[in-house]
Amino acid sequence: MMGADIFLESNYNTLQARLQPEFEASVKRRDSARSTKARDEAQAEIVRIYDAMHPPTAFFRDPYSSSCLLAQLSLSWWHHVAPRLTEDDHLPLKDVQWLLDEVRNRRLTCQAKPTYEQQVTREVMTQLASGSVQIDQKVAYTADDVEWFVSRKQALITFLLTAIELGEPPVCSL
24, 81, 100, 106: most buried, per Cβ within 10 A? Predict the structure, then answer.
């Protein structure tokens, strides 16, 4: 799935180096499991390790779908963040502070109208699949959806604060 991935190299690389062998071993256990129970247990372990490898102090992912946090804050990764990136895709600390201020000060809109990123993603996915892809666009958001967006907003705030505290410009793969 297409989306924005931002990470802090120091924290992210440390976690990857430490947890990748354990992750790969769990994948092997899952793939070689002979029972549904063993497979499910290994899959649960994979999810636990993956989550440990991607905490909000190291990594943030925002999909270009109806679940895009920045879109719900009336912001765009491509229009508002991409122009601020350095040639090597880092977001300078002054722009990290700008994004933090924007995220903190904006209210979630929970709008259902597709964003620019969602429209482009839909077009690309449709072309790749020869016109047979349907991308889900919700008409209304539930209370659970809003709660999820609030948790994602807090995760992004935590990520941006960590970048500032470490004095480390994050890498942005948009």
Answer: 81
